[in-house]
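G., the chain you wanted modeled:
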Amino acid sequence: MCRVEVYLGLGTNIGDRKANLYEALDRLDTLLGCHYSALSGFVETEPWGFVSDGKFLNAAVRYDLSVPRGTSESDFAHGILCVCKEIERAMGRTGDPEYDSCGHRIYHSRIIDIDILMIGDWIIDEPDLKVPHPLMRERDFVMIPLRQIASGLD
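Predicted structure as tokens:
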């Protein structure tokens, strides 16, 4: 069994944003089976990719997880993705991602968004999962909190 650092990005712009982040963290702790090892400060940001009256509250969190022997990187990462999506649904997030006629993602306000940012130094490039997150370096709302808890991200 090996250990790997898993970095997640969290964001919310609906309701009690701070409570939403703490609820998501509590649910992550429960479903991942351990308490996070690092948490950034909460960073307020403007919506990215769409217009909204509500600003986002964002954070990054690190979990040090054990990868069971014989588990592929892809299977492990998809398990984490399932946990993230389960929490989003349980907290009230609805709908699947939408795309415009050119294939660009259409973004909306959300009660919670949990993205896998990095898993160790793994590279996963599958249709439903890309690790590291392909847009993270373009997004200050990801990089500002992530730099607080991860080194070597310049």
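The chain is about 30% helix and 30% strand.

Shout if anything looks off.
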